[in-house]
Amino acid sequence: MGSNQTIFTEYTMDDINKWTVSQLRNELKLRGYTVSGNKEELFERLHNPPDDQEKAKPGNDGYLTIIGYAFVNTPFMPYLVVSILFMAGGGVISYLTSEPIPDYELIEFDSERTRSFAQDLVDLGHPEWGGRMSGTIEETAAAESNKQNFTDAGMGATIEKFNVPMFEILATPILRMCETGGIIPPFDPCGPSDIGSSITEFTHLEQFVIQGYSGTQQINFAQNIAVIDLGNGSENSDWDSASGNVGMVWGRGDVTGNTDLFLRAQESDLFALIIVNEIQNCDELISGDCVPYFKSVDVSRFETMPAGIAFLMVSKTVGETISDQIINGTQRLGLDVRVDNEGTREISVPCGVIPGSSNDMIIFGAHHDTVYNSPGAVDDSSGTATVLELATQFGALYNDLGTPEYTIKFCTWGGEEEGLFGSKAWVEAHQEELRDHLRVYVNLDMNHVDSDRNNGVVLFGNDADDMQHIANIHYKFSEEYPNLASKYSADIRLVDSSDMPYNSDHAPFVFEIDPDGEYGKAMVCYGSGSAEYHTYLDTMERFNEESLAVSGIVYGSFARWLAWGEQ
Fold it and tell me: Which residues pair with residue 286 across a beta bridge?
């Protein structure tokens, strides 16, 4: 990149009109909105959020600030031009900083070793389902492995345990349907004596998955339980008719969230609730179909958990089959879902620490747990592996440069996928220390770019001075790593603290370290091309370790500059 080249990330409405579906979903995710729907629905949600659309935090005013940057040569030194675009209002303010750009030292980053860290985590997954679900032996093993890696990096390491609301899957779930052979009672429908009957068994993980905090329910063919088509779940009369039966909701762009649907199923006394994934990842993963994926619920909204209601998501094809063959046909539904959703489970938070000359802290974090049904190579083995690589690099810097000015911590969180439980509990346990000494928290959640769906990375934070440093460092990164910089664009943003999304482990560090309402400083990286996340297809086959160097080097170099200055 030439020294006179200008880089801007200011967006006009015309620019956004040209965005792909993936870009629109990335933008909605950043703002804390749901990402389901077709391109037209995503565009509409971006520009005209529905009144009942939940955002990151109650009371948000809908403003998002974007930082664009350019470098201007002077006879003496470069200065930074910052342009801030207020998306809701459309106004642009530009100014020239009066401070020269510091001479940052970029850290090293070993992408191949980072891939090895991720592969090791994936290998610790459930032998059948692949995941490292919170509260399981697989999640515990991941935490122990991370602690050992922190120790190997030459730092002190600990693991803290927290009991949090968590469900436990007691057996592999079963979903099937049967066409009877026209038998006469007392023979069991579709049993050995039902001559001419046929059973269709749907494939767990590929064709259906359970949803967060599903209850336990068994339905056999003899019960002949009806399945009621609830459309998008908005009609009261449909829910009333589903009482004592199974309801099926089509997951279109206008469908409400899992929590509202599960609450409604509880109110209506359903035996089971099935969501059809009709639009979320069609054709991006499997041509002509949508793969079922895992979503959780907000347990704080339930007075008692629906212990006797099975909660599933099925693929588009399975939903259409159930509609044709059961709702509008003669086949019968059978399911066996066994989940304990009423207790707590122990989750783990391992941390490595490099002691500084002060108690002020820089913290890097990512979540080591995954959804139960996925190896989680991208979500979030990519972020955790980056934290492990940064710990390795900073351990070497500690040996070479001595005690840093700041204490630097590297932590990985359990319990993220079900409600940020690990980071919330850790922040609560260390609230006074964080309130007095947190300098900045850096969160890496899917900081990964799929090589075939490359929309670069988004680097955002809620402190203007910090994000100016990130823009500076990325400019130097672009000079020293021109191939990486040109291959993976970086969208650098300043987001007002009240508008920081509440959808990953940075949120407790922003919103919950001070009971008086002061915000903590945080930086986040989101990547692009993560259509596989929360599905069985999130494997190492699509893992792109090269892309992790962007956030790793830029954020890591900022921490190095804070900790050791010009050394």
Answer: 289
